[in-house]
Design a protein that fits this description.
Helix content: 10-25%
Number of helices: 7
Strand order of the largest sheet: 2-1-5-3-4
Order of helices and strands: EEHEEEHHEEHEEHEEEEHEH
Bound molecules: iron/sulfur cluster, FE2/S2 (inorganic) cluster
Number of strands: 14
Strand content: 15-25%
Oligomer: single chain
Structural class: alpha+beta
Low-confidence stretches: none
Mean pLDDT: 88
Radius of gyration: 24 Å
Amino acid sequence: MAKVTIDGTLIEVPDGTTILNAARQMGGPSVPPAMCYYSTLKESGGKCRVCLVKVAQGSVKDPRPLPKLVASCRTPVNDGMVVQSISAPEVLEARKSVVEFLLINHPLDCPICDQAGECDLQNLAYNHGISKTRYEEGRRTFEGIDIGDKIKLHMNRCILCYRCVFTANQITDNRVHGVMSRGDHAEISTYIEKAIDNDFSGNMIDVCPVGALTDKTFRFKSRVWFTNPVDAHRTCPKCSGNVVLWTKGNDVLRVSARTDRYNEVKEFICNECRFEHKNMQDWTIEGPRNIDRHSVIAQNHYPVTDLLKLKKEIERQIEFEKGHPRPTPSPTLNP
Ligand code: SF4
Ligand code: FES
């Protein structure tokens, strides 16, 4: 075990744990943001640099600070390490610069993007970004590409985090897309737009932190905060069948995998559950999805206890008004 101090709090974690995961075990505002690391995908991380932290003391054996800020998702802890996340102004400044860098090419099309409201980059920009850009050159632009018949790629929104590539590599059995070219020319390609038609390809939509990969069966159907997310399951021979149904009235607009507090899917779902079962009758409903109250998706969603209180209040008011009828307004002359 290694003892590590993060923003003044001491925590003990198994040797080999990364600084990011140590901070996640601790929880709270010191947890660095992550745009490319994904705990269920091997080799992920090290691409986006938003998780930078300062190592003020390397270890008990070698207490010298590390010379530069490090990516917390790729740096393992050492016994006696002292880490600064939100307590170091230079870390916050660096994260702000990374957001500005990520937004150089990313379009500001949140008002029409399906990911708005559940976009990690949008949240990051609100939390760490600046509201203007210094960039004067033109942005990279691309036409939308169909990746199979259910997924649309908007390359101009892509931040090249590689999560979808790792998903295709590790979750599906036949990867047909990856990152081509380098630097400013790098782009996700399906290698001559070959369709991805294996059973788990839809998970690329869930792992994408921005709106670059979208579900064609849900596109432009509704803003996510106008939907009611509910946990549901079905017996599926291919996957766990545990999903979230994004509903409006009795219509199921979208089916997605369940994500944890860091927006990561722990149980990937198959394409049949995701795309082929858009009927309420296909699912056993477990109850409303617990949405973080700070999320815009939580708008107008009340926990059951609040609804019961509201119902009681309305009933009390009706009873009261029965005994105290309101006076009928007297007719007034139209001026
Ligand atoms: S399409 Fe999405 S998941 Fe894939 S590299 Fe781009 S941002 Fe990452
Ligand atoms: S989350 Fe660490 S570099 Fe992207």
